[in-house]
Amino acid sequence: QVQLVESGGGLVQPGGSLKLSCVASGIMFRIYTMGWYRQAPGKQRELVATITSGGTMNYQDSVKGRFTIARDNNQNTVYLQMNSLKPEDTAVYYCTAQTMPPYWGQGTQVTVSS
């Protein structure tokens, strides 16, 4: 049974930081591209960042220079370090494993507000 479990969301003030974690089980984690998506109220789910099995990272333009994706294949975990957070970063953040079909976590809420 495949599970992706996110953690680390919460309420943070503009300019603050959060680090999201996603622990995967039931898949051969190290061979798959992993990613983070987000969905704000009333908007479509959008790509935030991905990291391939070889460590190549890709980011949405709006988070470049502020967010960093990383993975630990020994811990079956993918991370998203988010710095200089803005109110427009407020969303539910989802972890995904780009398997066939893709698997998704349940999501973790990130709220950026003063």
How would you portray this structure in words?
The chain is mainly β and 114 residues long. The protein is built from no helices and 11 strands. The chain has strands at residues 3-7, 10-12, 18-25, 34-39, 46-51, 57-59, 67-72, 77-82, 91-97, 103-104, 108-112. The strands form 2 sheets. Strands 2, 4, 5, 6, 9, 10 and 11 form a 7-stranded mixed beta sheet that branches. The chain has a 4-stranded antiparallel beta sheet with strand order 1-3-8-7, with no helix packed on it. Strand 5 and strand 6 (57-59) form a beta hairpin. The mean pLDDT is 97.
Quick recap:
The protein has 114 residues and is mainly β.
In terms of topology, how is this protein built?
Layout: E1 3-7, E2 10-12, E3 18-25, E4 34-39, E5 46-51, E6 57-59, E7 67-72, E8 77-82, E9 91-97, E10 103-104, E11 108-112
Parallel strand pairs: 2-11
Antiparallel strand pairs: 1-3, 3-8, 4-5, 4-9, 5-6, 7-8, 9-10, 9-11
Distance between the termini: 40 Å
Q: Give the uncertain stretches in residue-range form.
A: none
Give the number of DSSP strands.
Answer: 11
Helical content class: under 10%
Q: Radius of gyration, Cα only, in angstroms?
A: 13 Å
SSE string, helices as H and strands as E: EEEEEEEEEEE
Q: For the report, how would you describe the main beta sheet? A: 7 strands, mixed
Shape: globular
Helix run count: 0
Find the structural class using helix and strand composition.
mainly beta
Overall pLDDT level: 97
% residues in beta strands: over 45%
Q: Which characteristics define this entry?
A:
114 residues, mainly beta, seven-stranded mixed β-sheet, four-stranded antiparallel β-sheet, 0% helix, globular
